[in-house]
Amino acid sequence: MTRPQTIPADAEPTPAATDVTSFGIPTEVARLLVQEGIRVLRSIQFEALRAGALRDVNLLVCSPCGSGKTLVGELVILRHALAGRKAFLLVPLRALANEKYLRLQSRYRHFPITIAISTGDYAAEPKDLEKADVAVLTYERFDWLLRADPPWLGQIGAIVIDEVHNLGAMNRGPRLESAIVRLRQRLPSVQLVGLSGTIANPQELADWLGCQLVYSEERPVELRYRVLVAPDATQTIARLVRATIRRDGQVLVFATSRREAERLSLALANVVLPLLRPEERQALAEQGALAVVDGESPPIQERLAARLQYGVAFHHAGLDAVSRALVEEAFRRRLLKVICCTTTLEAGINTPARLVILMEPLFVRRSETGDTKFTYMDANRVHQILGRAGRPGQEALGFAILLAANAAEAERISDHYFVRVNGKAVARYDPVGSQLFVPQVLQEQVLVLAARAEGASLEEIRAFFEETHWWYQEHQHRPRQTLDQLLRIGSVDVDALLARQSGKPMTGADVTQTSSEAEDIIAGEQRVELTVLAPDKIEGRVQQRGWHTCAFTASGPVCSCQQLASSAELCSHLTILARSALHEAPQYAREIIPRSLKEDFILDYLERHGLVTQREGRFFATSFGRLVVRLYVRPATALWIRSRIPAITTTSSFIDSVVQALRFEGDSVLDAGVVRGLQRLVNSPEMSLAAVSRLEKAEIGDLESLLQTAIWLGGAVVSLARMAGFEEAAILGEPVVAAWQTRAAER
After folding, report:
1. pTM exceeding 0.85
2. Which pLDDT tens digit goes with each residue over 42-93?
3. Is 474 in contact with 467 (CB distance < 8 Å)?
4. Domains and their CATH numbers in the chain
5. CA 212 – CA 328 distance, rounded (Å)
């Protein structure tokens, strides 16, 4: 990738230069902006256009929330679409994709362009985007699209990546990173524009992307930070809320959990109600009526409706999409005064407020030895949350407050998230780092390379990884040997492994102590269920803040939490499973676990399990490997599904297999009621989603979200069963997936 240059902001723009008719903005677009009252460009918009955003220059636009980056992306997209080229906007979340799509549809509805959205169903064909001029996609959907490589891909003129700092996210970052590399290799002439909040290493990220950096820390609305000591957080928040509403402001409170968000919203109801005007009370009563959609609404909708009439709401993933949208719109209309939320309002959703309060950005825990351990939220996430404060065009100031339990905690928070400049708190950011170098991720990416029609040689595999952000960051510190190996997992003795995990030495006499610990785990809050105990496999379910599926197999350790599993560091769930297995079946544990942690090359792994084959020095995906790539599941998940298929003999066992596959594939913690609801949606077609939610005491938002994922993974199980020759399992699963599709369409 070419090395970019930073675009300096060294010249004051003249009034003429900042006019929206400058820089080649299409006439019809400029006319629309003027009609909307946008006559003058903001600073970051001026700098981006001066840098060549409308001249096919690749840019990384990095600036605070609310500074105007969104319009830069829209201008790039519209320029290409109006010129007859496709332009895609990539976003991290489905909810954000829906909002962006609706905004584009509404704002540019009179333009001669077709706007589409594509966020799911990896079994579908990419033809749904063939006629679109503009499309909004999630990162994963775009990654899948590049793998499918439809013939019209060459028509793409621009890719705008919103929230591109998500490259550092553990779950979606690696797929976004690899998709960018494949985009550069497949379509090197496409204009790439990344939009990001402020980060610590913007130049490094721009260098890797091959973009010129347009950077600013200037906000259109000044943001003032404070860290408050609040021994009674509810009382402190009530006082801040009351003062803000009296000055006609609104408040977002980011709580630590769904339960806390709902509790706090209820506690604030009587604080807000006396401050509402009569006409606001009337309008909010109507909003409350809308929140209850029918006579069998789930309890969560009834709880929401009860709060709405007080001018307060909660917002989290347990709410269905319609209810979340209702809350967001009521807040934008300034009817709602306070939203108590989780991270569902963290990224992108347009709900600015005058005051943002973040509870507990610092988590304090006591270890078993009595030591204090401090865990901080990622600084970039914290400042993204705080950046929701300040409404451009309506507020003169935004206020961001972090709460601390005591003075010592407040000092730690201040030191971690801020620096002092001339006596003023200034945000401190974290660098964006690659999450690519994880065994399951590497297995998937090598398989994708081998699934190309021409396969891949070792040199081509090396060349791919040399273009990644991971290698860009690490190549000066790691020898080439590391890249050739891709990943090696060292062999260990299981007793020594468990000793290292617990941080204390172990001798042969200490096995009894380990067994005792396992008994304590089984008897206490951490429960273990050994589900498979075979000569080549130990599998189980571990309950530790939710259930996790773990396994030690010949192909390596795997856990649904997706943390790096290596000889030096296992996740806590695998450690608990190992201890339990050592207690219940030591002869299996001492044989299988060390073998599972042996040295292993990625290509050897893929070849040994029938995912790739080698011919004349090139690696080609087998029919099984190509199917895994098309289904968009990770190799380890596909192998687990294939091993599970013979046990699928009933509808219940099929649904259970899908749920277990979900735990392998993602990081979801599934409530038992949600899992039962998934089965009831098949067995009781006469019941609505709301009725199932009420009966199973499962949040409707969780059911709604799980349905989409279950359709995808259920289809994968059916396809893998058919390929493996288990036609009966496939026939059994097809009506289940069809039933889920029907229920999803009802929403």
Report:
1. no
2. 899 999 999 999 999 999 999 988 888 999 999 999 999 999 999 999 999 8
3. no
4. 27-215 (3.40.50.300), 222-427 (3.40.50.300), 633-747 (no CATH)
5. 35
